[in-house]
Specification:
alpha/beta, Glycerol-3-phosphate (1)-acyltransferase, globular
Amino acid sequence: MRRHPRRGEAAGQVTKAAPAGPSAAGAAFGRRLGAVLMRGLWRPRVLGAERVPAGGPVILAGNHAHNVDGPMLIGTAPRPVHFLVKKEAFTGPLGPFLRGIGQVRVDRSRPDRDAVAGALAVLARGGVLGIFPEGTRGDGDFASLRAGLAYFAVRSGAPIVPVAVLGSAVPRGGRVRALPPPRTRIDVVYGEPFLAGDGTGRRTRGALDEATSRIQKRLSAHLADARRLTGRP
């Protein structure tokens, strides 16, 4: 039986389905696996998890002081999370594993359209996108933010939930160890969700710069609150 063209489709052409995005089932499995590993190796204490909306698109914006911060958030978040992960991590067998648990590969050296499409697909289907907005592991104090977080927040309309991971980067002998010592207590503190945009829906460079400034203030304030709450330096 001959198929008639659909509305908006030229004769003889077939409309391609939109990409499904990273695996939601994979992220759910990654969360279960992460919970076992993180709670088996260390002693995470999660505060304010009820602030993460139970449904709908959400962006978790975390500080990044240690390589264990991403797995810690994946394993302790109240919902499955798809993180933007640098392409350098997708080497050897770790690459297929990260893809299998729904993480998003991103090339930080150039505008990565595939990563942008994957992240927006997560939010479009009502999932949770995780971002370390500082762009790389550093002091974990939100001192330098990239505009990517603002773009995703304004473009999708998803609320941002700030999250502080404290205690993972414990220095030993003046240097941060490759992994925190076993059974170290690591605090994961969630803040109140907020919207990054100004309500106009504008996505101009100026609007994104203003959104980035608003985000930085909210994230820095949350980090200060989390440190007071936990007694962390």
